[in-house]
Design brief:
The complex is a heterodimer. Chain A is an alpha/beta fold. Chain A contains 15 helices and 22 strands. Chain A folds into 2 domains: 263 residues, Aldehyde Dehydrogenase, Chain A, domain 1; 187 residues, Aldehyde Dehydrogenase, Chain A, domain 2 (3-Layer(aba) Sandwich). In chain A, α3 packs across α4 and α9 crosses α10. Chain B is of the alpha/beta class. Chain B has a single domain, classed as Aldehyde Dehydrogenase, Chain A, domain 1, CATH 3.40.605.10. Chain B contains 11 helices and 10 strands. Classes of the chains: A alpha/beta, B alpha/beta. Chains A and B meet through α8, β19, β20 and β21 of A and β4, α10 and β10 of B. β19 of chain A pairs parallel with β10 of chain B, so a sheet runs across the interface. Chain A: Keywords: Oxidoreductase.
Chain lengths: 485, 299
């Protein structure tokens, strides 16, 4: 079958992006070395090629960046909202102008397909800045009382799965509401954040309003703990989220956490099979499944299990895995060797516990970090692959007989971030959606995002919402000092 | 006649817990002496144990499905019924609050009136909060989506220590108005108005288990409730700074939503909506809008 559909390589050109051999930390409007001079390398996960060397922030750098942000807060928060808005609109426009460059850079540093960075990440990044730009001078009307105030300095720690998009989710609402920012990108994907620093300079953003610290978890922890940080925003693992919740206990720091998930994608027997298969594939193989809201548990009504699995396997056999810069690539590289090891270990656990493993015939490139799309069938709720977040292209398939059973199984998780429902029956969609304990429910679609729409989890998937009017709340102090609004 | 009345021995009330719609004593058999503001003995209140707290969580979880699934209109009716029942027992609460907080009769009456009115305020909110904090989002694409608030689940409430009745109601009512169920630790020093409130709730059509009231020590029960895996949130209103920090750390084990203690000078002030939104989740449901064809007027 593959021979019938040979594709010629169609790589996107790397020449649109010019990566410098080294980068400093972006503090107070300048690129500077780390106080202790430490650096680390960032590699392309698809080839293991070293892309650049970046400064490794330590506690001293965190302190310096927070001081810069504190100083900038005085004037930034006093600016009329309409002026802050114009800075954000400028940033949004420059992102649009440079979106091809940023898409290629993101694909190089992260390993995800150019199709995704070009068509999903970058358009959403620009849209997010446009959306929150518009809020900056309308905060009195946002439902948080008259004249809501910014919190101060926001310390933000983001993951590697959507580096620039997570930056946008963090920085856009923070700046719109008058806060200043110290942001730490993940150690495996520092580059687009550093290019964003350059965009801030092009936009003429006042010094110190945005500070970018590249580094490891220790820098993130120092940022969270810094006594002059007023707001902590974190996207990442539930384990780190819990550690942060403990760290900030007893302080006045406001926190929002976007953590793990084990999303259930529920397919009823009346669902249009072909559409459902596309939704399942999108749900778990988008971004190699390295998505907190991935539909990683497929719940299929028993009567259509065999038919659906046949279609799904057929579809998986047509997915193209390989060079992320190739415009025809569906599945890119896993972000890092560590993540690949984690996925590999969990998949081995799945086999060891007796679930049935299947992957399409799929040749993996010889260098870089790769994992073939994988299905587990004969999975029960007790299996590790049905409980733990794998954060990779691994789908666990379970079955159910009644809607009640589907809901009970879907909700049987410590997480509560996303869920999917596939059925032609409107009342069933509403009834099931109503009972699912998840922050985002996609009915007859999956993995859709929009800056106007709040996103975030129930239970151990975190708290607070990002996006929409709701996304402002995490960056505003109540207008009344007694805590009422 | 007067002499006959004065020689009649009045009937004391045994104050009991309110758990799962019933009035148990503490399973531990423990009580503690409750005195008025001048130190005069008022009653022996149950000194609840961690087992009582766990039983209360079980009751609150059991009640959650029905209460959160009730219509907002129905919840509003029941909250209003609570106000009606309180109004009928106004004199009793004026006396209890006066004794508990050392207030004159007129001041205690003002507190009780404000507490009754607070139930009325939250009764009206049940079917409005969803419109205030939810709504349709203008998605840039062929999708409709709707964000709606949903109750977080079982909420532990450490009630205020000083304001034993108005403060208590001001923290319970917003939790249950939105469909959560509550496990309440009363003011340690002044638990009697809270325990009597249980009798009002029991006669207001409020399903058993929606509010569970435990008298005793927040420092003893708090850690067990803060670390309980089947509790979704905790309001630390009545915890001092040290206890609040301890409980917030324990609450991180399953990422409970935490409402930190905030200084309140005047419980009779407009409560706003923040005590409701603190225990609400936002769910956004998406669906494709489809297309009626390229003509644009295919109606």
């Amino acid at each position: 079958m593959a021979s019938l559909f040979e594709y010629a390589p169609a790589p996107e050109s790397r020449s649109v992006v010019d990566i410098a051999p080294s980068y400093g930390l972006f503090i107070d409007g300048e690129f500077v070395d780390a106080a202790d001079g430490k650096v680390f390398k960032t590699v392309s996960p698809s080839s293991e090629e070293v892309l650049s060397e970046v400064a490794q922030a330590g506690a001293a750098d965190v302190d310096r960046a927070v001081k810069a942000a504190r100083k900038a807060f005085v004037t930034w928060s006093a600016l009329p909202g309409s002026e802050r808005a114009k800075y954000l609109f400028r940033i949004a426009r420059i992102i649009q102008e440079r979106s091809r460059e940023l898409a290629v850079l993101e694909t190089l540093d992260n390993g995800k397909p150019i199709k995704e960075t070009r068509d999903a990440d970058l358009p959403l990044v620009a849209a997010h800045f446009f959306y929150y730009a518009g809020w900056a001078d309308k905060l009195d009307h946002a439902g948080y009382g008259a004249n809501p105030r910014p919190l101060g300095v926001a310390g933000q720690v983001i993951p590697w799965n959507f580096p620039l998009l997570m930056l946008a989710w963090k920085i856009a609402p923070a700046l719109a509401t008058g806060n200043t920012v110290v942001l730490k990108p993940a150690e495996t994907t520092p580059l687009t954040a550093l290019f964003f620093a350059d965009i801030c300079r092009q936009a003429g953003l006042p010094k110190g309003v945005v500070n970018i610290l590249t580094g490891y978890g220790d820098a993130g922890a120092a940022l969270v703990e810094h006594p002059d940080v007023n707001k902590v925003a974190f996207t990442g693992s539930t384990a780190v989220g819990k550690a942060i919740a403990r760290q900030i206990a007893g302080t006045d720091k406001k926190v929002t956490l976007e953590l793990g998930g084990k999303g259930a994608n529920i397919v009823f027997d009346d669902a249009p099979i072909d559409q459902a298969v596309e939704g399942i594939v999108n749900g778990i193989f988008f971004n190699q499944g390295q998505v907190c809201c991935a539909g990683s548990r497929l719940l299929v009504q028993e009567s259509i299990h065999d038919e659906l699995l046949d279609s799904l396997k057929r579809r998986l056999s047509t997915l193209r895995l390989g060079d992320p810069l190739d415009k025809n690539t569906d599945i890119g590289a896993i972000n890092s060797a560590e993540q690949l090891a984690r996925i590999t270990a969990l998949a081995e656990t799945g086999e060891a516990e007796g679930a049935e493993r299947w992957s399409p015939a799929c040749e993996l490139p010889s260098s870089g970090y790769w994992f073939a799309p994988t299905l587990f069938t004969n999975v029960t709720q007790a299996h590790t692959v049905a409980r733990d977040e794998i954060f990779g292209p691994v789908l666990s398939v379970l079955t159910f007989r009644t809607p009640d059973e589907a809901v009970a199984k879907a909700n049987n998780s410590q997480y509560g971030l996303s869920a999917g429902i596939w059925t032609e029956k409107g009342s069933r969609i509403l009834a099931v959606a109503n009972k699912l304990r998840a922050g985002v429910v996609w009915a007859n679609t999956f993995n859709k995002f929009d800056p106007t729409s709040p996103f975030g989890g129930y239970k151990e998937s975190g708290f607070g919402r990002e996006g929409g009017r709701h996304g402002l709340e995490g960056y505003l102090a109540p207008s009344n000092p007694k805590g009422e609004r | 006649m007067a002499t006959v009345e004065s020689t009649r021995l009045n009937v004391f009330k045994t104050y009991k817990l309110y758990v799962g719609g019933k009035f148990p004593r503490s399973e531990s058999g423990r009580v503690y002496e409750v005195t008025d503001s001048k130190g005069k003995w008022l009653a022996n209140a149950p000194l609840s144990s961690r087992k009582d707290a766990r039983d209360a969580v079980v009751a609150a979880r059991k009640a959650f499905g029905g209460w959160s699934g009730a219509t907002a209109y129905n919840r509003g009716q029941i909250l209003y019924r609570i106000a009606e029942m309180l109004e009928g027992r106004r004199e009793q609460f004026v006396r209890e609050v006066g004794e508990a907080e050392g207030l004159s009769k007129s001041k205690a009456a003002a507190v009780v009136d404000a507490a009754i009115d607070r139930w009325v305020w939250y009764a009206g909110w049940t079917d409005k909060i969803g419109q205030i904090v939810g709504g349709a989002n203008p998605v840039a694409g062929p999708f409709f989506n709707l964000s709606t608030p949903e109750p977080t689940g079982v909420v532990t409430v450490v009630a205020p220590q000083d304001s034993s009745f108005l403060g208590l109601i001001s923290v319970i009512a917003p939790v249950i108005a939105t469909g959560n169920t509550a496990v309440v630790i009363t003011s340690e020093k002044s638990p009697l108005p809270a325990l009597s409130l249980g009798e009002v709730l029991a006669t207001s059509d409020l399903p058993g288990g929606v509010v569970n009231i435990l008298s005793g020590k927040a420092a003893e029960m708090g850690p067990h409730l803060a670390s309980h895996q089947d509790v979704n949130a905790i309001d630390l209103a009545g915890a001092d700074a040290a206890l609040a920090k301890e409980l917030e750390i324990a609450a991180a084990d399953n990422l409970k939503r935490v409402l930190r203690p905030q200084p309140v000078d005047d419980w009779s002030a407009d409560p706003g909506t923040s005590r409701m939104t603190a225990f609400l989740e936002t769910k956004t449901v998406w669906h494709p809008t489809g297309s009626l064809g390229s003509g644009g007027s295919s109606y």
